[in-house]
User: Which sequence fits this backbone?
């Protein structure tokens, strides 16, 4: 059987202009590997939204990272003050990964 190791999965949905700051905060927390994924639309507490290809003003991006529990906790602590004011969505969950050393 292939062995796995416990890690944390972090997902942040944010307005595209905020992504550089979120990436910086992730780096400060020790998260150096991540994936950025464009989104096309959705619905939330503030109603429906969709990507505006013309101006990009309403574009949202999902940052996905898999990291250690310690790095995830540090990231969440640093990002928490921005959650309400910037209408961020932050998800954190347990995952089991193969080749866990790649996610330290």
Assistant:
């Amino acid at each position: 059987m292939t062995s796995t190791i416990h890690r944390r999965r972090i997902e942040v949905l944010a307005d595209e202009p905020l992504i550089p700051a979120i990436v910086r905060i992730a780096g400060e927390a020790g998260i150096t590997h991540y994936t950025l994924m464009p989104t096309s639309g959705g619905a939330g507490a503030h109603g429906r939204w969709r990507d505006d290809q013309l101006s990009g003003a309403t574009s949202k991006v999902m940052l996905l990272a898999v990291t250690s529990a310690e790095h995830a906790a540090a990231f969440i602590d640093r990002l928490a003050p921005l959650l309400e004011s910037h209408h961020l969505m932050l998800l954190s969950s347990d995952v089991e990964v193969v080749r866990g050393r790649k996610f330290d």
